[in-house]
Structure formats: structure tokens, C-alpha cells
Amino acid sequence: MQALLDLEEKISVLTGAAKYDASCASSGSGPGARGGSFRSGGLGAALLNGVCHSWTEDGRCVSLLKVLYSNVCRFDCAYCVNRASADTKRSSFTVKELVDLTCEFYRRNYIEGLFLSSGIFADPDIVMEKLIETAKTLRTQAGYNGYIHLKIIPGTGEKLIREAGLWADRLSANIELPTDKSLQNLAPQKSGKVILGAIKETFEAGAENEEDRRRIKFLPQGKFQAPVFAPAGQSTQLIVGASPEDDKTIIGLSGALYKKYALRRVYYSAFIPVGTQGRGGISDPRLPDIPGPPLVREHRLYQADWLLRFYHFTPGEILDDKNSFLDPHIDPKTAWALRHLEFFPVEVNRADYETLLRVPGIGAKTGRRIIETRRSRSLSFDGLRRLGVVLKRARYFITASGTFIDRAEDPRRIRRLLSDADGAGLQLPLFEF
Ligand code: SF4
Known about the structure:
The strands form two sheets. This protein has a seven-stranded mixed beta sheet. The protein has a two-stranded parallel sheet with strand order 8-9. By secondary structure, it is an alpha/beta fold. Helix 10 (332-339) runs antiparallel to helix 15 (411-418). It has helices spanning 2-16, 95-107, 124-140, 158-167, 180-186, 192-216, 247-261, 295-310, 315-318, 332-339, 353-357, 364-373, 381-387, 391-394, 411-418, and strands at 51-55, 61-68, 113-117, 147-151, 170-172, 234-240, 265-270, 346-347, 398-399. The chain has two domains: 2-318, Aldolase class I (TIM Barrel); 335-418, no CATH class. The site of iron/sulfur cluster (SF4) has 9 residues, from loops. GO terms for molecular function: catalytic activity; iron-sulfur cluster binding; metal ion binding.
């Protein structure tokens, strides 16, 4: 009985301690990514401690057990509830406890996957070994085929990063703060160089694995198949608002990470003031004194990130020296359009796909539908509406067979009309804009 209570307490402490890490969406790992039974759906999972919901790239909601192996940490990152100097209850799982817990939740259909991270309770390689052992035991002994996301502990050696990718669907090394200067100030035991080194190593291991598998594919049937290295790729997290960098720096960094290391996702996590929000700490003079997490800013960064990944914008087009912060009142695509009225109006019956993507209110899906539909007939505004174009935004920037609804001649007027001053719709950016 005592052991059961201990385990319940551990679950409560170690799922509570994990909830501030945003980088857990299981996008990119479709059903059977490892040939297993990656199931969809879940039963009342929101009621359980540590079960979080994430969204795949196709908008499907999945539930994950999000937990720390241990919240004991030698590091003292100012923004973290688990930092060494925080007065908080500490606990650690054993590998067996975590394996049993994951399997139990999975069998009961509470979860579809595991997101596992840890405080740095020992040398980084020792901590990483525990995370790997958990994933490996799940795969090789417990018959678990669900999704696994492993955090790469800062300072982990290359060999262990390569091993982690053989058991996990996704790996992530959190950059946390966008510049080395801020890391030195708020997380002095961390180094940007080391974190970027882990991201690079993960990228290279994935590329080599792909190459190996391509070669092996040509071997005769029945030969050994190389395992897939982290099939859902890698992601990272940036904390927004704990340090003074502008959005231009953050989006510039994200753009470089997508381009250089093919990251699947950068997650933006609005800084939650540690001392003032009752997260079990003493307020730290190095941290900004803000009333609450900057959620509107976080939301705009997700929208700008969407422009990088799906709308072929470059960081320099989204923000520049004159506009180094995203407009809180208007989405970044509309903000770009209002700065580039010379680009408009776009004639929807003639424009190519790339040009259509630049129009506020036309997304990737509706852009493709426009191209497809106009092969057989020319499009009117009613037709555009039926295809899913958001005319509330697009009307100022398009013509249909030369006709206008409204003309964007005065950017201030359009800005006023399209402004959502409260940062409306703080949902994940799964919509097209
Ligand atoms: S390394 Fe830093 S961010 Fe990670 S658990 Fe320790 S104190 Fe928190």
C-alpha cells in the first residue's frame, strides 16, 4: 500500500514538473511509423495527471504521458521550477516504474505516447542512459509500439544521441533562450554551442540513417533492415519573454534551424513568471517583472513560424530592423501585405500558387483548390468563398476577373478593420491565414 502511495506521489510530482515544456507535439509520426499499432483516440485522458494533448501536422489530437524521470537537478536555470535552488518536492522514477506506468496507461487507452525528459540529477550521460533504457525496455521487452519523444539532456555525448534515436520517434534538445548572452545570464550552466551541437548531431545521424536505409532497400528480401532513426524528426523549444531578444532574433533563429537542421517544429513557450505565479520559487532579479505570460506574443510567433514552414516566407520578409517585433494586433501575413501594397491586388484567376500564398485569407489548401478549380471555370468571389477563402481578409488584396470588393489603398484603414486587438483565437495555429 505504501509503495502504491509513493508511486502516486511520484506521478503527481514528476508530471507536474514536466508540464512547462511545450515541445511535445507528436507531429510527423503517423500510424505504424515503426510498424506498430500507433492508435488514435483516447478515453477521458484529460482527467489524468500528466496526460497532455498535442496536435499532429494534419490537425489530429493525440494524448501523451508527459513526465520527468527525475526533477532533481544540478543546474540552476532561473526560469525553471525544477532549478537546484527551488524549494520544491523532489522525486525520481525507476526505469521499471516508468515502463510499467506507460504500458498501463497505453493499455487502458489513456495515452498514445510518452514524452520523457528529466532534471540533470547526475552526469548528463548517466541521465540520458536512464531515458534511453526506459525507451529501449518499452520497445524490446514490453512490446510497446506507441509514440516516444525523448528529450536530449544538455551535454549528452554523440554516441548516446545516436542510440536514443533508435528507440524514440522524436528527439528534442531545447535551446530555451535565443542568444548565448541570455543563456549565460539565466542558465549559466548551459551552453548554446553544446545545445546546437546536439541538434547538429541528431540531424547528421538522421541523414546517415536515411542513406543507410536507402542502400539496404536494395538488398535481397529477408535481409536485416536498419532501424529508423527518430522517424518524427527533431524539435526544440524557445522561451519567449524571459530575456530581452526581439521577435526578429527569435524568428531568424527558427528560420536558420529549419533550413540548416531540418527541424520539424520550433515550439514557443511564453515565459511564466516563476516567483510571482506561485511556481514554488523566489523571484529572481534577472527575470523580467511581468504580470503574466506573454500569450499574444507567443501566438504571433506561432503564426510567423507557420509562414516560414508552409508559406515560403523568409525571416527577413516577416521582420526587419524597422519592425523587429510582431504586431500584437494583426497576424504577420496581413502585416506583411500592408507593408507591401505594391504586390496587390492579386488576380485570382491568373496568379501562380506562390503568389496566391501571399494573400491574407488564402492558405496552402485553398491556394491549391483555386488552381485546381480555375482549370475548368473562372472564379467569382462567391466561388472563392465556397473554396474556403477567408474573404474577410482577402477582399482587400484580390480581384476576380478584374472586379474588386474593396481596395487596400489606405493601410491604416485595413489594419483597423482587420485588427484583433485582444489577440483573439489563442488556439494553436492550425488554421490557414
Ligand atoms: S537543466 Fe535547467 S531547465 Fe532543465 S530541469 Fe534543470 S534547471 Fe530546469
